[in-house]
Model the fold of this input.
Amino acid sequence: MKEILTKQLIIKLIIFVVICGSVTIAVRNDYSLYGSTIGTITKISEASAGTRTGNDGTYDYKERYYVQTITAVLRNGSQKGRTVTIENKYGKSQVYDIKYKTGDDIFIENIKAQGSGFTASVTGVKRDWFVALILCLLFGLFLMTGGREGALTILSLVLNMAAFYGVLLLYGKGINLLAMTIPMAIFFTAMLLFFMHGWNQKTLLSLVSTIAAAAVTTLIAFAVLKFSNVDYDFMDYLSQPYSQINAGYIFLSEILIGCLGAIMDVVVTIVMTVDQITATSDASPKSLRESCKAVGDDIVGTMITIMFFTNIAACLPRFILSMRNGIAFHTIIRYNVFFELARFLTGSIGIVIAIPISAAIAVGFYERRMKKC
Amino acid sequence: MLIVLAGILFLLIMIFCGDQGAKAVISLVIDALFILAAVFLIYKGLSPAAVTAAACLLITLITLFYLGDINVKTKSAFVSVAIVVLVLIPLIWFFANGAHIGGFNSEQYEIKDTEGYTRNIAIDMISIQISVMFIALIGTVTDTAVAITSSIYEIRQNNQTLPFGQLLKSAFNVSKAVLNTSIHTIFYIYIAEYMTLMMQYINDFSFSQLINSKSFCQEFLTVSMSGIGCCLIVPVATIIGSLMITGRRGHVQPADGVSQHEQSL
Done:
């Protein structure tokens, strides 16, 4: 184990912990940066507020309700240091409401003098330091495990987010989303491939194959979408009112972006394989295609598994809420989790279709080059 | 539409993939059944934590030992996944509980009391959110672990006499590339998933509202947890893989052709 635990690594770990700790403490205490009033909960007393019954058609569910009397000290603004009392009602399941804990930082509104003290209402939790902490953890781990590549990954993620933000800003100005997503997808792919492998023939081949595979996938999705009636009412977070056509564009953009990463992954693997084989032997195009198929076969299973879990996980809460509301199983699949399933299926189609497309492009390229020699 | 898409996917797998592709379809169906069973059991009132733990274990076993084979590669991948998941349990609990990210949020227009949903469901939504974080994590972590242990195995196969330190070094080089592609795969899936949410943010939210909102934290913490899992699995799988693969080789080596060959030289 000596090879692993070097002095350098220990120093890195210490720096990592110190940075994470100090960022967390700094962000946790950035009360003065906020215009809205923030308080820290110092004391909570709880009382039962009875039970209510929910029903899913067959069973009854007893939900216990509680009222919390929260004492909080204000941390910023003109009334800093003042103590206020807040009432908060929550159900034990915390479907829409929150059970607060001592030590939580909360946003406070409507501060009023009442009797000898002050009352107020709570509007939300101050969560910024959790975001800061997890970002530190993530980036620190990237840098420690990935080194230079890790730094490039962070850079490319940040650039991607910036490009994406720009596209959304333009969308807010009324420009067609799909028309912007397509160049953005090409830009993402080109940048990422360039970061990972430098500027050479392999990158160019991967770029062409990725774009081709993503285009085919989106076209398949478009064709299927054209012939079916999708109810966008159930699309997560979609601003209402919406127009059917516009929602369709948004959905197609989602499909395009969603399959991009996985397709790139498959394509790079295939192009690398072809490159490696042609560099070391004079394989015939036919045997090259066979190798591509074998390699593709190996990765397709796990890639589809990733697609499945990453897309499906987020709809678990909705699934359970709907079931306990007595919504029939096939209705949930048909409407409530429709978009997650559709994205998973199109993403998987992208993964599978990327294999023959990239194999054809890569093998075709090397074939032509061999003939020239 | 879903049936058409599923049909197309099935057809494509049948055309372009061989046995392994068929296996992929079967293991996917089994995974989906496990998830549905888990949902159903939670709906019936079993503890979400216990159900998720069992589902994750079964899914990992299927993905590793059915999709792959039972060998030293998948075994070491399994040990690595188990270690990472155990490390992440307290971390995920801390974030989910501390940041209060269970339940639904005001940005989800389609799920509200006014739409006729009852909130009296008697299931703790924070545990459900923790389950979500684990299920989102398990697919990526398993895949990354297998990719790493497989390449360590290949390196070892090609060079039996490589000293342990050297093996570890070249294994780490491969692992970095694996990390990069895994991160981007999940990153794009999440961007797609939350595109509509981000549109809302741009229209209605200020930055300080954004980073304190429940919806953003739910998504962001879940994504980041998957990312952290991916990062952690890289050193763990590299070290465990190297140890287990060389360890087994070490026992076999005396009877192996390699040492006899050296003696005859």
In short: Confidence is low (pLDDT under 50) at residues 250-265 of chain B.
